[in-house]
Each structure stands twice: as structure tokens, then as C-alpha cells.
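Dear H.,

Thanks for agreeing to be a second pair of eyes. The structure we're designing against is below in C-alpha cell form, covering all 332 positions.
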């Protein structure tokens, strides 16, 4: 059975392709390589010893997407393709709305035309804005503080409207918390070209001395040690949830949202100390001002995903830190 994975050469997409192939699915990738490299396709093949069909191009390109669906009998789609840098989205909102929303509209139009009405969408914990209490459940109020987050919220709405208009659709909205880690092989992982925005890629670059020092954005939050608390989840656990979501949408019609996290909150200082201990490296840091738009703490109640998808995260924080560093050591 063929699954189309948009954004399949990206960080989460590549790990999901591996899990799909390991579970007997065939994989077709469409990616414009705006934030990933072609060699990832070979690495996915090397890990799984399976073939993958790759189309280099834009999901916003309707001619291309029609060609993909004409040439492949696609059973379901996982839609990762999107731009994801919060800060950049504030500076270039039109780019984010155009890319993230247009790609989804084009994809869904072509899916409709080919009678393929099963989609898993990459949403984000960012749709909860600043949560009033913790852990976060799926029925908490939704809001966003930046254009990136708005694209996620709008797309969730678009997909819900689509289901309302046509009950043959099966749609899973997966709200990721903070993915880190990498595949054990060290062949795929996250390696941003620019200065990283996110904590783990930044720590890794400080540990390898590519960057001098980690800036910790505030130690005066109302958290266990004053630094921000997040729900870090191993990317392989996250990838496995996509296989469960595919099984679910192949089985049942409807539209539903699922939190994907571990349920544990770790502070920035805890992550830094764990990374140092597990990898035996130094990570110099300094405390600086809060980053605008950051929230104090965020972690998931993922019991709904357990109940409906039969999925729970299994990997612990030590393994996440070790795998993140292993990938970068092999890919410096
Ligand atoms: P990523 O940048 O590594 O992967 C996204 C991929 O999509 C890249 O390979 C990029 O080249 C491709 N792409 C972007 N726009 C495209 C387009 N119009 N056509 C074709 N390809 C396109 O990001 P990721 O971390 O793997 O994230 C995957 C998805 O999960 C994104 O939608 C992201 O917003 C969402 N998400 C990520 C996080 C996170 O912290 N990594 C958290 C929540 C949600
Ligand atoms: N942090 C630092 N220094 C850094 C980077 C981050 O102290 O150099 C802190 C932040 O202040 C925060 C924590 O580390 O307390 C995590 O920050 P990240 O940037 O790694 O992650 P966020 O939770 O801010 O945001 C991420 C993604 C969003 C997504 C959200 C929820 O970037 O796109 O998780 O899924 F919406």
C-alpha cells in the first residue's frame, strides 16, 4: 500500500518514512528540498533496504501533484511539507501563509480529484498558545501568537471544514510537542544550515564548538528552576505515531486531533545537564533575557492518542540526548 509523504526528506518526515517502510508500506516522497537534502532519500533506503520513489518539487504545484497521483495509486497522505521557523514567520508572514496553506489546499484538491480522502497532518502544540493549566488536553482553547502557529490553526480548520463538507474524509491532526533525537544509525537527523532556533540543535552545535555558548532565554519563569519547561519527545517515537495514525485513518472516517508528547516536562537546565552527563561533553551557557513569545511551560496529556491510536512514547530523555549528539558527530 502506497503512502505519499510530503516533506519526506525533512527531519520528522524522514524518520516516518523509515517506520512506514519497516511496517510494509510503500513510500512516495514529494519535497522541494527547501529545508532538506536529496541524500536523505539514499539514507532512508540504506536504513530500510527498501526502495523509495522521490519527486523533487513543490506541493503547491498542482501539475506536479496531479502527476504524482496519476503515476501512483496513493492510499493515504502524510503532510509534513511546510515552513516551521517561528521567528522567520513573524518577519515573512506572507511566505508562511502562501507556502503552508497553499500547499495544503493544492494537496487536498488533488486528493479529492483522485478520490484519496485520507490524510495525516503535522500540527503543533503551538496551537494551544499559552495554556491555562497543565498537562494540555486536546479540548483546551486554541490560539496562536505568530504566523507559523496561525497556519497550523487555520489548516486544522480547513481540514475540519473539508470533513464537514464530505464525511468520506478520514483526517488525523497530530499536535507534536518538542521532537528531538535522531535515528540510531546516525544517518538521518536534524542539522539546520542556519543558526538553530530550537534548543537541542543549538546545544549540539555548542557541544561541537561550532557555536560558542548557549543563550538560555530567562531563568525567572514560574517553573522548577526558572527556565522554560517543554515536553521533549524522541523523533522515532513520533514517527511511530504516524504509522498508528495511518492505521487509524485507513480504518475509520472522521476528523480528530491527537497530542503527541511524553507527558514529562524538562527545563532547559535539565536538558543541558542531561546532555552533558550522557555525552561527556561541556555545554557552556549564560542566562539572557526571555525570548519574546515564549511560554513558561508546556507538556502534553497524550492519553487520547494512547486510547484511540494505541500509541505511547517509549524513549527516555537520556536516549534523546545521546541520539541527537550521535547524529551530529557522524554528520559534521
Ligand atoms: P523540516 O523542515 O525538517 O521538514 C519539512 C520539509 O518540507 C522539508 O524537507 C522542506 O524541504 C519541505 N517543504 C517545505 N515546504 C514545501 C513545499 N511547499 N513543497 C514541498 N516540500 C516542502 O521540518 P520538520 O521538523 O520535519 O517538521 C515537519 C512538519 O512538522 C512541519 O509541518 C512542521 O511545521 C511540523 N512541526 C514540527 C515541529 C518541530 O519542532 N520540528 C513541531 C511541531 C510541528
Ligand atoms: N531555548 C533557550 N535557548 C535557545 C533555544 C531555546 O533557552 O537557544 C529555550 C526556550 O526558551 C524554551 C525551550 O528552550 O524554553 C525550548 O525552545 P525551542 O525553541 O526548542 O522550542 P519551543 O517550545 O519554543 O517551540 C517548538 C517549535 C515550535 C512548536 C513548539 C511546540 O519551535 O514550532 O515547539 O511544538 F510550535
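And this is the sequence the design step returned. I haven't edited it by hand at all.
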Amino acid at each position: 500500500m502506497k503512502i505519499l509523504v510530503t516533506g519526506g526528506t525533512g527531519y520528522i518526515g524522514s524518520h516516518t518514512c523509515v517506520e512506514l517502510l519497516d511496517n510494509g508500506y510503500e513510500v512516495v516522497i514529494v519535497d522541494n528540498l527547501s529545508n532538506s537534502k536529496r541524500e536523505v532519500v539514499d539514507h532512508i533506503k540504506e536504513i530500510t533496504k527498501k526502495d523509495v520513489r522521490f519527486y523533487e518539487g513543490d506541493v503547491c504545484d498542482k501539475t506536479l501533484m496531479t502527476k504524482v497521483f496519476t503515476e501512483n495509486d496513493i492510499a493515504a497522505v502524510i503532510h509534513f511539507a511546510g515552513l516551521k521557523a517561528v521567528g522567520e514567520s513573524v518577519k515573512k508572514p506572507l511566505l508562511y501563509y502562501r507556502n503552508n496553506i497553499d500547499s495544503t489546499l493544492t494537496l487536498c484538491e488533488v486528493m479529492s480529484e483522485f478520490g484519496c480522502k485520507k490524510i495525516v497532518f503535522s500540527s503543533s502544540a503551538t496551537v494551544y498558545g499559552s495554556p491555562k493549566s497543565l498537562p494540555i488536553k486536546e479540548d483546551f482553547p486554541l490560539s496562536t501568537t505568530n504566523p507559523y502557529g496561525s497556519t497550523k490553526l487555520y489548516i486544522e480548520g480547513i481540514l475540519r471544514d473539508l470533513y464537514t463538507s464530505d464525511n468520506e474524509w478520514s483526517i488525523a491532526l497530530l499536535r507534536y510537542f518538542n521532537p528531538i533525537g535522531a535515528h540510531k544509525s546516525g544517518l538521518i537527523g536534524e542539522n539546520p544550515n542556519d543558526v538553530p532556533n530550537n534548543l537541542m540543535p543549538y546545544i549540539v552545535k555548542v557541544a561541537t564548538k561550532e557555536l560558542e555558548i548557549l543563550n538560555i532565554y530567562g531563568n525567572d519563569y514560574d517553573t522548577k528552576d526558572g527556565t522554560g519547561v517543554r515536553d521533549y519527545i524522541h523523533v522515532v517515537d513520533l514517527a511511530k505515531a504516524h504509522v498508528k495514525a495511518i492505521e487509524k485513518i485507513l480504518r475509520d472516517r472522521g476528523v480528530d486531533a491527537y497530542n503527541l508528547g511524553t507527558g514529562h516536562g524538562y527545563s532547559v537546565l535539565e536538558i543541558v545537564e542531561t546532555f552533558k552527563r550522557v555525552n561527556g561533553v561541556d555545554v557552556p551557557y549564560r542566562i539572557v533575557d526571555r525570548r519574546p513569545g515564549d511560554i513558561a511551560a508546556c507538556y502534553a496529556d497524550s492519553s487520547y492518542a494512547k486510547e484511540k491510536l494505541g500509541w505511547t512514547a517509549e524513549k527516555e530523555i537520556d536516549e534523546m540526548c545521546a541520539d541527537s549528539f550521535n547524529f551530529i558527530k557522524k554528520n559534521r
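Two observations from my side: The first helix runs from residue 11 to 22. The domain at 2-182+232-261 is CATH 3.40.50.720 (Rossmann fold).

Warmly,
E.
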